[in-house]
Amino acid sequence: MKIRITYRLFLVILAAAILTVLSTFFIMQWSVEHGFRRYLHNVEQTQFARLAVRLESGYAAQGGWDYLKNEPEQWLRLIAETFPQGHPRPPEEQPQGGPRPGEHDREPRPLLPPPMGHPPREIGRMFLLLDGNKQPVFAPAEIPADTTLKPLQYRNRTVGYLGLLPHKRLTDDFQRRFLKDVQSALSLIAGTIVLLAAGFALPLANRLVRPIKALAAATERLASGEYTTRVPITSTDELGQLARGFNSLALTLEKNDQTRRQWVADISHELRTPLAILRGEIEAIQDGIRPTNPDAIDSLHGEVLRLEHLVNDLYQLSLSDVGALTYRKVELELDALLTGVLATYRPQFAAREITVAATILGEGTDVVFGDPERMRQLFVNIFDNALKYTDPGGTIAVRLTYQSKLAAIDIEDSAPGVPPGDLERLFERLYRVEASRNRAAGGAGLGLAICRNIVEAHAGTITAHPSSLGGIWIRIELPLTGRC
């Protein structure tokens, strides 16, 4: 049988309360009984010392113990006078501010009542009296070894011994009744605390479990695809942190779902365009509207190349996402690689009358640890974008500089530019600024996304900023050898 977490918490809290109460009960019971016995022992010792003084005075007055041997009743009467009957004064009757003047001079009142209900003869059995030679005057046949003996002095010599027989249990009904009342009070307190703990444990368990139930229900909705599900944050403790973590997870899943849907829609749209063109031109040729000549074949070939390029980009991007894109890193001179890629694009820039201003520094000792082919693909994608999206007659500036631990590549182009709010989105898949850098110029919006994956695989960063030339400024930072 499964026990609900509410009842588990209830049982745990209740068990903890019961264990605490029982431990406190037994400790208090032992402490009270032990303290009470110690208190009785101290009182007995006080009365014992007083009885010794009276015996010493009697010995001095009578000159020996014969007066007690001849009249045993005097022994019992002496004990009864030392332990007078009566109860101690209640606390509220004690004078405030300490004792009254002269009060210390009077005979002190008894601290506890005598063993009420016991005849004087029975009280006398608690004490024994020995003479100076430790011969019994009043004593049992066998004296226990742990009997307390107090020497009785007269003129600096020991004339006798007063003994207090040990007793292992309380012999007074009043004393036993007192301890029983204390134990009853402790039992009542313990029972009351347990009942109160049981009364508070169930509401407390419900309160603790309520946010967990809400999280469980929200998790079921999230698992069913309701990514807009959120849970309220009602505390700052661990449950509140769990709720915030759940909301963050739900938000991430919601964004990922939106990205996935947009990704599928964009890919479908990108694939439909070249396929529609191919279908239209092929049907035109089939219907005889367009003659089958080299121009028609070149047009069909161009659309196939465009479609192949898009599929290759998607494949490269998917490999990078799953970590399957291979990298063969070696120490390479970045200046030579960048100069070589730029040299292949200079004729194309010249054809569009785009001026190239290059400042590429290198001393042969500044190298990075990277894959030459992937780095070449990185620069090719960036120069492709610059070639497609820079107006004829514009300018492209390329700079390579070295810092203490980084190599910085800056590539800027002239107008048209990109709104500042769209700069961060340039590295998203299939994203294009339709106002100026649109599909008519070619490309599917995957080049910069691939560039970002390549740079991050080399432990670097790539960012986009507004360019002083009027276009965009792409900045790449790569760690020098041994830093990635």
From TrEMBL:
Annotated Gene3D superfamilies: 1.10.287.130, 6.10.340.10, Histidine kinase-like ATPase, C-terminal domain
Boundaries of every Histidine kinase domain copy: 266-482
Catalytic activity as recorded in UniProt: ATP + protein L-histidine = ADP + protein N-phospho-L-histidine
Enzyme class (EC, first level): transferase
Organism classification: Bacteria, Pseudomonadati, Thermodesulfobacteriota, Desulfuromonadia, Geobacterales
Name under which the protein is recorded: histidine kinase
Membrane topology type: Multi-pass membrane protein
TM helices/strands, residue ranges: 6-28
Pfam families: HAMP, HATPase_c, HisKA
